Amino acid sequence: MIRFDQVSKRYEGGHEALSQLTFEVATGEMAFVTGHSGAGKSTLLKLLALIERPSHGHISLDGQSLTKIGQSGIPKLRRSLGMVFQDHRLLMDRTVFANVELPLVIGGIAPQERGRRVRAALEKVGLLDYECQLPASLSTGEQQRVGIARAIVAKPSVLIADEPTGNLDPQLAVEIMGLFAEFQQVGTTVLIASHDLPLIKRMRKRVVVLDHGRLVADVAAEEVL
Amino acid sequence: MSASDQVQSPPVPAPARTERSHRRPVASWREHHGWSAGDSLRRLFSKPVGTLLTVAVMGLALALPLAFYLLLSNAQSLGDALGRNQVINVFLKTDQVASNAQLLAKQIEQHDGVASVTVKTPQQGMEELSKMQGFSDSLHALDDNPLPYVLEVQPQDGISADAANHLVDDLRSTQGVDLVQDSGTWRERLDALLGVGNRAVLILAALFALAVLLVVGNTVRVDISSRAEEIGVLKLIGASRAFVRRPYLYAGVWYGLFSGILAVGLALAIEFALVEPVARLSQAYGGKLRVGGLPPWLLLAVPVAAAFLGWLGARLVSAWQLRRAA
Predict the structure, then answer these.
(1) What HEC string does B118-157 produce?
(2) What would the pLDDT profile of B198-248 be if each residue is shown by its tens digit?
(3) Which of A159, B72, B276, B300 is the most buried (most CB within 10 A)?
(4) Range of the domain at A97
(5) Distance from A128 to chain B by nearest Cα, in Å?
(6) Class assignment of domain B87-182?
(7) Quick one: A151 and A174 in the same domain?
(8) Could you tell me where in chain B the CATH 3.30.70.3040 domains are found?
């Protein structure tokens, strides 16, 4: 479970990105965080991944207070998260296989097991035939799917994505969101920051709406029109 | 009501970290190192020209002190052949008889630094003199043989000037000895020269080791700078600082190891190039000159020490550079 309790984030210079934010995402739930540019969506995800620290309030993940995690504990926390980025953040000098394998290498998984899991993840995103290729030879949508495979390969309990369909055409965007929905089906908590309202509506999942760092609406899945 | 209230909670797969830390920490550690070593090698081979140039610069820097060491050890051998350990002639008093000479010879043979002692009788001395041009006639004019017993003391190979001087002093103070004749000045000069050479080799080795450290450090610094984005990605997906750093440390080890091997190769090539001219020189000294090669322990120690230097250079720079990259 992800829990934000009265969380505020003020950057150096005084800009308040998040203000008194309180909400929960249950284990195995899929939710969208949306809002205009500058609403605080990315900051929210950065706080969850401990890329930034909150100025006030508490954040917990599966009962663990993130506020209490020191610098040395950050890698361990991030290994329990799967992160997908708008710009994929792939290592362009490594093959698709090597990119997806990285979280397992970091996790100290044995080579044979790594190979099995990487292929399973690539099969899941439909890129099994591309494992020996370099990311640069793939389309943007395929690169994003590699990024998703990398995020899920270590079986994280929580998957967070920052504008994962921002660079994709509508058809590809639906496919990618479909993948996230499939991961939710197997029990992964999924939190996606996106400003693509038509796509969000189409997915019919819970939507948390931010405006200038404040929570202005929390719409349940069945209430999304 | 929020949607979270309505979502059932299916079982959540265990995070990978849990598997690593509880099931197989030693195996994980080994796999991390294996992966880092392989990854750093892959990076080195992915830019072969740059790697070759770096290794060549470091290899040459390490080969120079080795070459000096090789030349110095041969200079020492040459010095020995030229007479560094030439015979010390001990002239006994004329009242010393054969039995005394033999007794003294046995005593002197026990001395540290003495390889052998040969007794030369007055008769043998006279025969040698008579063979010399100009002496023959004048020797016939003598009624008696005026020559004393002479002990030819052969110092051990590689004896130092101090030890030789000490030996000469002991010989001079021995009862029954009239005169001791040796080449002390030559030996002292040679030792002083070799001392200067040895010190120069040490200084050069230290300077070039520092150069290796700096070359590796700078290479790793540039490598880390050019991979700032990759480092950021690794950290985002849960890599610890040690994990991020490890491939750069291995890169330092590889650079050092390869340059050490190259340096040994170059030194062996120099040694090989010297074999023929030194053999000719040796013949000129009746085979007394021995060609000294690099000892096997040094051939092994150089790559190992170079790998350590590479690791040290990478370690010093990566700690600082990764903090900056973070």
Answers:
(1) EEECHHHHHHHHHHCCCCHHHHHCCCCCCCCCEEEEEECC
(2) 898 889 889 998 998 999 999 989 988 888 888 999 999 999 999 999 999
(3) A159
(4) 90-155
(5) 22
(6) alpha beta
(7) no
(8) 87-182
